[in-house]
Specification:
Layout lengths: L13 E2 L4 H10 L5 E5 L5 E6 H9 L3 H5 L14 E3 L4 H11 L1 H6 L1 E5 L2 E6 L1 H14 L1 H6 L1 H17 L3 E6 L5 E4 L1 H7 L3 H4 L10 H17 L3 E9 L5 E12 L5 E10 L1 H15 L9 H18 L2 E9 L2 H8 L1 H18 L5 E6 L2 E9 L3 H15 L2 E3 L2 E3 L3 E8 L6 H17 L5 E3 L2 H23 L2 E10 L4 E13 L3 E3 L1 H10 L3 H16 L7 E5 L10 H12 L6 E5 L1 H5 L2 H13 L3 E7 L5 H7 L4 E4 L1 H5 L5 H17 L2 E4 L5 H9 L4 E2 L8 E2 H7 L39
Parallel strand pairs: 1-2, 4-5, 17-18, 20-22, 22-23, 23-24, 24-25, 25-26, 26-27
Antiparallel strand pairs: 2-3, 5-6, 7-8, 7-11, 9-10, 10-11, 12-14, 12-17, 13-14, 15-16, 19-20, 19-27, 19-28, 20-21
Amino acid sequence: MFTLRDTVSSLAPARADDLGKTLYERFREEPDTLIVPVLDDEDRPIGLVERNAFFLRMAAEYGRALYALRPISVLMDTSPLVVEAEVELAAFTSDSLSYRASDLLRGFIVTDGGRYLGVGTVLGLLQAANETNRRGVEALAAAKAAADQAHTFMTAVVEAIPSMVFVKRADDHSYVLLNRAGEKMLGHARADMIGRTDVDFYPAEQAAIYRERDAEVISSGEVRVIEEDHVPRKDGSIALLRTKKIAIPGPDGAAEYLLGVSEDIAERKRAEAQIARLAHYDPLTDLPNRLLFQKDLSAALSRAARREDLVAVHCIDLDRFKTVNDTLGHPIGDALLKTAAERLRACVREGDTVARLGGDEFAVVQTGLTDLTGATRLAGRIVEALAETFDLQGHQVMIGGSVGVAVSPNDGSDSDELLKKADMALYRAKADGRGTFHFFERAMDEALQARRALELDLRVALAEGQFELYYQPLFSLGADRVMGCEALLRWNHPTRGMVSPGDFIPIAEEIGLINPLGEWVLREACREASGWPEHVRLAVNLSPAQFRDKHLVGIVVSALAASGLPASRLELEITESVLLQDSVGNMSILHDLKALGVRISMDDFGTGYSSLSYLRSFPFDKIKIDQTFVRDILDDADALAIIKAVLDLGASLGITTTAEGVESVEQLDELRRQGCGEIQGYFISRPKPAAEIAAMLGVTVENKMKAPLVTFSHGEKEGPATKSWEDEGVRRQEA
């Protein structure tokens, strides 16, 4: 008597922690594999992944991105049909058709003592059932009831299979069987097909191909698979089938019949095509993605090398996309990206590639150029197209775009190199004010290499303690003495010498070093200022980036506690940009700092858009008039009027006002006449090292170790003034 052990097929199983992408590749490499069992560490089955269901999920929107790197445990059916190998074949098939027909048809797992043995399929059941019938023909003939039961069993199995099952005679290739699924797939009634051959239904040439294939199977005795068989239906449409054929031997061992099972793979092919498209196209804009862009660029460069023409790469950035996305929401941002993609398509010729590289970054491969004229014209068209107003669901939006261009072979013949250089040119275009385009220049690469070297040196400097603090006095005109000093960061590079803060502070902000650097500044400045006379306050600048650190208030408390500096002697300077970024959250932090007793001042007052509104919403202790106004106070009536207005405003609000950038006695006299209470600038003193400032304040400095490097600030002055003074100490003009 046959059991399931006689039908089992060997198939390599998977493990629950295998990744989706691994299974995807396996299904692609093994087209005959329709199911994959999933086992635990003890080789016991815990699930099953079915080929068609898997491809449909991977083809869904973002399916590959969601499942490629996730374990297949999230994709598997956790309740597969599992049966022991010693179960009787006929009983199993009958029970399964009654209770779990769909599981039987897709495939099931066979175990031996609970551990995985192999898989069972409908084709295997059919073959075993046929062998059962052949061996038991004499016994069945003696018992008609048993013969009828066997016939009923076979008919039930064949009719329930969702794939087309057909049987032909081996001698004349006429049909002797076609199941219900076959009728549906082909559109022909089985009554019309039984007893007839393919030549009665298909064109002679195609019928001859089918007959030749069948003859090969019959003569070889081997299983043959036609991966993609385009079969005409009765209504003229085409069925896309995957067909497996095998010869069925008669009592004498010679082939008597040909058994075929055909699966409709149209839906699976559509799913595979969708997956392939998702791998190469951006789902939002339907533009090629970075992967396909790189392929197209490499192909274009190869063609151009043979033809000796030029290829231009345009890197494109939407200038104010982030603002639109943040203020109007992601749906408007998505609509903007799609509309921008349409405009870019309209700018290029057929044969050029427009791609979305990610975010608001796009790129174009322009081919067939003989000189730079065509690239210049295209870059100009792109800038003009993106400068036009976007109408997005009732919102009128203007963003603009910047373009960087690199051209092969002058700028390189490698796709990565060209893209990198086009990106450098884009960076220059944005630095030049945006809404423009720029071609790559060799100096850009040199500047980038220099910047990268500075970035590496900056990381080393933080670790090795190459930074030091200088201090610039704040002079009270009323008390005629120094009432405070502002801490300014200096980098004494071992080979470069003194590096300008304007060179390294922006890099520190970009690469995430500004917070540890700023914390070190705060701690070191508090430590050094703790030895100054009690009337001298310490001013430290805070970067907007430091306000994104939720521990900022705690860091200030710790620096004060470690140094012993009273909170009332610490003055923290911020710029308006701190309040422009997350104004509610940053305002809360400012109130917490104020509650400690720390003084808060607004630096560069008058250079922003909303300074006056912030004076109403937060009780600042000081406002500092930006040096651009002080510089023009003697020659520009408007600058003088602005300074006078700020001084009057400060007096009315009870806020101290400091004028920055005072460089001459004439500026000092004018500020005194206008009622300014405090000044800072080269006329009073240049920034000096801690020891010199301490000596100027009459303090003897002990040889203390620097505080360990742990975060600086942003309010460094622009650089040395054009005029220097021999006397850099504190001095006051004699009447």
